[in-house]
Design goal:
The structure holds two protein chains of two kinds. Chain A is an all-alpha fold. Chain A is built from three helices and no strands. In chain A, helix 2 packs antiparallel against helix 3. In chain B, helix 2 packs antiparallel against helix 3.
């Protein structure tokens, strides 16, 4: 079960990186990469949490997921605003 | 699980291709940040494989370091100081 969830997350990351190579504009690249990468990596870490359970290592994986959800949209906002207001 | 590691390596090479080809400095920096987050997934899978505790601490440290570096470099791209 956990291996299937981890493989699904890595395939989501691969699809996002194909979009990061193929899209023509900078803002569309920022859009596709800041939506797909936190979703894929959080699916991978959620699979790690399912395999480990409510141990102290599994709780740390959930804390990493929460930091990822808060910080990666701020990354996309900051770098696109820096490029647009140059 | 080795299949997931192989897929993450392929996506990391796609980001490296964008790093070589990218027209701006912002594209290159964004590809480095994405490679950092892919390394975060690597650390999670290796912590599951080897049952070690400090690798799963390093995932939290990696995402915070990527955030701080992004804020500093975006201020540099605007041409401002860090405190304005």
């Amino acid at each position: 079960m956990a291996e299937i969830i981890i493989i699904i997350g890595s395939v989501i990351v691969l699809i996002g990186c194909v979009g990061f190579v193929r899209f023509p504009d900078f803002y569309s690249r920022v859009d596709v990469i800041t939506k797909s990468i936190p979703f894929g990596i959080s699916v991978i870490l959620f699979g790690v949490f399912i395999k480990l359970g409510f141990d102290e290592m599994g709780i740390r994986a959930l804390v990493a997921v929460i930091f990822l959800w808060f910080l990666v949209p701020i990354i996309g906002y900051a770098i696109s605003k820096a490029v647009s207001s140059k | 699980m080795n299949f997931a590691l192989a897929v993450l390596i392929i996506s990391c090479f796609l980001c490296l291709w964008r790093f070589i080809k990218g027209p701006n400095g912002a594209d290159r920096f964004l590809s480095i940040i994405i490679m950092t987050h892919i390394a975060m997934g690597f650390l999670g899978i290796y912590a599951l494989k080897t049952e070690s505790e400090f690798l799963i601490d390093l995932t939290i440290d990696t995402v915070i370091l990527a955030f701080v570096g992004t804020i500093a470099v975006s201020k540099y791209l605007q041409g401002k100081e860090l405190d304005e």
